[in-house]
Write a structure and sequence with these properties.
By secondary structure, the protein is an alpha/beta fold. It folds into two domains: about 180 residues, Rossmann fold (3-Layer(aba) Sandwich); about 180 residues, 3-Layer(aba) Sandwich (Rossmann fold), CATH 3.40.50. It is about 35% helix and about 15% strand. The chain has 13 helices and twelve strands. The chain has a six-stranded parallel beta sheet with strand order 2-1-3-4-5-6, with helices on both faces. Strand 1, helix 1 and strand 2 form a beta-alpha-beta unit. Helix 7 packs parallel to helix 8, helix 7 crosses helix 11 and helix 9 packs across helix 12. The chain is globular and about 65 Å long. About 45% of the residues are buried.
Length: about 375
């Protein structure tokens, strides 16, 4: 009888556990990992809503004092006290919002550490803030690994953060492809008053400034001039919701733009889209694009992050600049040429099946988490 590896205690620190791309990837990992580790999650804002979507045992503090952000030094001292209390075998921090924890573990480290960087928020769309670059260079030098999901981000981090050789690891996002290859749920679709007999443009995005869904609404208002009865379905929520609804009411036809709010399982609606569009100012390797590809949908998007490399060769011409007029032209062309759209969608499905398997992603994370604990 062979000895089983000892169970390791892994602490994952997020700025929030509300539903978003990194959180969805984390939940997918939890649901499929074959390693018998004990996972604890700490959300800096105390929001653990996303954990309702997994049946896996994951611990989270319900009565622990939140870290007060604003003063990086004081926050790092508080994080160090909490880190000693958790006493994990491995600390995993996610994005800028958890940097205080990495700083807390930088000198006289309490445990091994991995940092996962998915991208940047609206205040670093065009360039990193100088102070943050310095803190990243300091905080992440003692990590076992720094993980990024896109080649564009890998290149930037390698140049900007000046990390020691061997720390940086590229792990592309993966999804459960089969989930997005089933028909949309008719009851949910009708509940949102979405007419499947009409052309449908859709997106899945947090309604935050860096996602620039206003650009998509502006583009859609132009599409309406050329495609009769077209609808825009926006899956997502955020601080920009009210302003975007007002914009849609001003520039689009009544009832043509439908806001569903957050959907924990976008696959119940996404497969009915005729065209998927992303209008972000910044992305790296968005899960929503992979999901659309898995569902066999052509993608029209701004050329940010790895999106042009992610889609099939046939789809690449529709990943272009950040002008609303360019988005509108691509969407209009694909809606006017449905056979071409279907052909591009089929090529995207094949690319997703070949390149973005969740199994490979989970196995790679398992390997690095286990190695880092040694």
């Amino acid at each position: 009888m062979t000895d089983q590896p000892a169970q390791k205690r892994i602490l994952h620190v997020f700025s929030t556990l509300s539903l978003g791309g990194p959180q969805r990837r984390f939940l997918d990992y939890l649901d499929r990992t074959s390693e018998n580790h004990h996972h604890t999650v700490y959300a800096m804002d105390g929001d653990y809503a996303a954990l309702e979507l997994t049946d896996k045992a994951v611990e989270f503090p319900q009565d622990m004092q939140l870290v007060k952000k604003g003063n990086t030094f004081k926050a790092s001292l508080q994080c160090r006290k909490l880190l000693k209390r958790f006493s994990p075998d491995l600390l995993v921090t996610y994005n800028w919002g958890a940097t205080e924890w990495a700083l807390a573990n930088r000198f006289l480290p309490i445990c091994p550490m991995i940092h996962i960087q998915d991208g940047f928020t609206e205040d670093e769309v065009y360039a990193e803030r100088r102070k943050r670059v310095f803190l990243r260079q300091v905080a992440y030098r003692s990590c076992k690994y720094v993980i990024v999901p896109s080649r564009a981000l890998e290149k930037l981090v390698n140049w900007s953060w000046k990390l020691p050789t061997g720390l940086l690891r590229y792990i592309p996002n993966g999804i459960d492809i089969a989930r997005f290859q089933k028909p949309a749920t008719a009851e949910l679709v009708s509940g949102f008053s979405i007419d499947t007999r009409r052309p449908i443009v859709g997106t899945v995005a947090g309604l935050r400034p860096e996602k620039n869904v206003g650009r998509l609404i502006e583009a859609f208002s132009s599409v309406e001039d050329h495609i009769e009865g077209v609808q825009l379905v926006i899956i997502g929520d955020g601080i920009g919701t009210a302003a975007l609804k007002m914009l849609a009411s001003q520039v689009c036809k009544p009832g043509s733009v439908i806001f569903t709010g957050n959907l924990s399982q976008p696959e119940h609606i996404l497969p009915m889209f005729d065209v998927f569009s992303l209008s972000s100012d910044t992305e790296q390797m968005p899960l929503s694009v992979i999901e659309a590809m898995a569902a066999g949908i052509p993608v029209v998007s701004t050329d940010v992050g790895d999106i042009e490399q992610m889609v099939s060769e046939e789809n690449k011409p529709y990943i272009a600049d950040c002008k609303a007029s360019t988005l509108a032209a691509g969407i209009t062309e694909l809606l006017a040429l449905p056979e071409k759209a279907k052909s591009i969608g089929a090529a995207n499905r094949t690319k997703a099946e070949d390149s973005y398997s969740i199994r490979v992603m989970v196995e790679t994370y398992d390997q690095l988490f286990t190695e880092a604990c040694l």
